[in-house]
Write a structure and sequence with these properties.
By secondary structure, this protein is mostly beta strands. The chain contains two helices and six strands. A hairpin with a 3-residue loop joins strand 4 and strand 5.
């Protein structure tokens, strides 16, 4: 996520948790392509956000799932990520 945003002239912190502190909160019903989506994938780390993705539209987002799976597109509104969604932020200009 940091790499992609940097390519478009927007500097973001490195970690998902740090990225979750940047931008404007967006309601899940008002998402636009490019919004950042945050998830809690690992409660043992003791922080509220451990994963980030970029909303693509049509209920899907792109993210780095794991070293084995690589970069994938996943649904936001059903499946495992729907249950661990924390919130969304907009850092792109309007």
């Amino acid at each position: 996520v940091q790499y992609i945003y940097n390519k478009h002239g927007i500097n973001l912190p490195r970690t998902a948790f740090a990225q979750s502190k940047v931008g404007q909160y967006i309601d899940k019903n008002n998402l636009r392509a490019g919004d950042l989506l945050f998830f809690l994938t690992d409660k043992s780390r003791g922080i509220p956000v451990t994963h980030v993705g970029i909303y693509l539209g049509n209920g899907e987002f792109i993210h780095a799932a794991s070293k084995d799976k690589g970069i994938i597109v996943s649904p936001l509104n059903y499946g495992s990520y729907a249950n661990i969604f924390v919130g969304a932020k907009r850092v792109l200009p309007s």
